[in-house]
From TrEMBL:
It comes from Leptospira adleri. GO terms for molecular function: copper ion binding; electron transfer activity. Residues 25-104 form the Blue (type 1) copper domain. Residues 1-21 form the signal peptide. Keywords: Copper, Metal-binding, Signal. InterPro entries: BlueCu_1, Cupredoxin, ET_Amicyanin, MauL. SUPFAM superfamilies: Cupredoxins (SSF49503). This is Methylamine utilization protein. It holds the Pfam family Copper-bind.
Amino acid sequence: MLRRVLTISIIAVSLTGSLFAAEHEVGQKEKKFTTESLKVKVGDVVSFPNYDSFFHNIYSLSSEKIFDLGSYPQGQTKKVKFDKAGKILVECAIHPGMKMTIEVQP
Ligand SMILES: [Cu+2]
């Protein structure tokens, strides 16, 4: 009985977690990110649409979220889920001037 209650509450917690997870957008436009900084919550997803007519390659080497989206053309969007709190520096491998930070709050 106790085990069943525990299982149900674990399912409820994980369901609420995903229900409240928000999706944010950080576009790439004119060789810049559409925002220099963004605050999200743990579990949120950020999409990175490319609005430029050339390729971008979004990545991060910050220990809380290491990722590399590879290079992709105009019209394509890639998504990243942030599952750990911290400050993440996001850069573009093709354009060294492109930088922005995502603060993931617990
Ligand atoms: Cu770029």
